[in-house]
Specification:
By secondary structure, the protein is an alpha+beta fold. About 25% of the residues lie in helices and about 30% in strands.
Length: about 450
């Protein structure tokens, strides 16, 4: 049997293992999975950091061409391992089949963005580019159970060994690939690297050692997590997420994504800094909706470190907040008028009070990014009245890194998959990339 190493037990690894199982290749390997989390409930897709929103779309989630039949399969995989069961047998209309999944008599939360031509045209006429998608929402609470069920599913196979609380410090490529970890050194015939965005340190090391494997990246998304009352967004709750792009007056593209109706704002902690994110539960709802507003920043030669640029803005926000694990909270009205927020108004924050300070995010953002955020929110208010309320809340900063795209056709028996590969930006596409890589290899 061949020895296979998998670094990181997240969405991409789940897809890869599922692909091996489906094709029967699973029996050809002795598999070791390395995960820095202390157990399977603290791994890369832990519900603490993810919303459990699975979607089907050709216009979001990554820069891969993922056929719709594979996207359907990935949604079915997660629903099945979340305790949902279909009430329809007929799969000829796969969307209707997936919509029929229910758990304890409760249907899966479903939304279809911009199915209404009238709504689509309303956004389009105001300069926005609407993105169409189907959404299936598990919720952070259910995702924890999903995570547990998937782990138990894989541990059924006696040739899969999990090593938790294991930090992979370096990789040396083959023909026998070596994994250098805090628990020793391991060699493999085949290697999968699927560490997600949180594995940026390891990926930076690999890029330095093997620059021939990567394409240059010049992008980083920088912005805010925005929070406002549910009633402002409730007209659009039936499609679950309003995902739009907008070319602002600065020339920068700004986008709204990761909307969480009745959700909560949360921290996303890295080794050196802390950013913000958002999620929503299936059973525990709040009075607020949150979403990300991000500005895509593209750099040109000679600058080659957009990730470092985003990291340093996040660190600056933490410094201003007085703690590397705190972020800045500000009302939109104060942000727009260049005033530090000293008190909040009608919108009460869902982020724990120990995790933020009231401050001024204008001290963090360069002017072009700041002006892009204001332009986006003010124009969105023309379509969704109330988005630009004075006392709506913004948290700084939220950053989404674009990894250098790894070339998977250079080194034999090496698979760099998921968000760390630079090709995906979502649970759905990361899982699909892992699945496709397994069935094609």
């Amino acid at each position: 049997m061949k020895r296979l190493g998998i670094v990181g037990f997240g969405a991409a690894a789940i897809g890869f293992l599922e692909g091996l199982i489906e094709t029967g290749k699973i029996n050809d390997y002795e598999i070791t999975v390395f995960e820095k989390g202390k157990d399977h409930m603290h791994n890369t897709i832990s519900g603490v950091r993810m919303d459990g929103k699975i979607f089907i779309s050709r216009g979001m989630g990554g820069e891969l061409d993922v056929p719709l039949d594979i996207q359907y399969k990935i949604v079915e995989l997660y629903l099945t391992h979340s305790g949902y069961k279909p009430t329809l047998r007929d799969k000829s209309n796969f969307i209707e089949y997936l919509k029929s999944f229910e758990r304890n008599g409760r249907k899966i939360e479903f939304g279809e963005s911009f199915s209404s031509e009238e709504v689509y045209k309303r956004f389009y006429d105001h300069g926005f580019e609407p993105v169409k998608a189907y959404f299936f929402h598990l919720g952070t609470d259910v995702l924890r159970e999903t995570n547990n069920n998937l782990f138990e599913y894989f541990t059924f196979f006696k040739n899969i060994q999990f090593l938790f609380n294991t930090i992979v410090e370096d990789i040396e490529l083959g023909p026998k690939h070596k994994v250098v970890a805090n628990k020793g050194e391991f060699t493999f015939d085949e290697l999968v690297i699927s560490v997600g965005r949180s594995g940026h340190k390891l990926m930076d090391r690999i890029k330095e050692k093997y620059p021939q494997l990567v394409k240059e990246n010049y992008y980083v998304d920088i912005g805010i997590r925005y929070e406002l009352p549910n009633h402002v967004m409730e007209e659009f709750f039936d499609m679950y997420e309003v995902k739009v792009r907008y070319r602002t007056r600065t020339g920068y593209m700004c986008r709204l994504f990761c909307q969480n109706p009745s959700g909560k704002v949360t921290l996303e902690k890295y080794d050196e800094f802390t950013t913000v994110n958002g999620y929503s539960d299936t059973y525990h709802k709040t009075d607020n909706t949150n979403f990300a507003v991000l500005v895509t920043t593209r750099f040109t030669e000679p600058f080659k470190d957009p990730t470092g640029y985003g990291k340093n803005l996040a660190k600056l926000a933490n410094i201003l907040a007085g703690d590397k694990e705190k972020v800045i909270l500000q009302t939109y009205g104060d942000f727009k008028e260049y005033r530090r927020t000293k008190r909040i108004g009608r919108v009460y924050p869902t982020l724990n009070g120990n995790s933020f300070i009231l401050g001024d995010a204008n001290l963090v953002f360069p002017s072009k990014i700041r002006e892009s955020l204001v332009d986006f929110i003010d124009n969105l208010d023309r379509v969704i009245k109330g988005v630009a309320y004075f006392d709506n809340l913004l948290y700084a900063v939220e950053v989404k890194f674009y990894s250098n795209k790894f070339c998977n056709d250079i080194v034999e028996n090496l698979h760099v998959i998921g968000d760390c590969s630079g090709w995906t930006r979502s649970i759905q596409y990361a899982t699909a990339m892992g699945y496709m890589r397994a069935i094609q290899s």
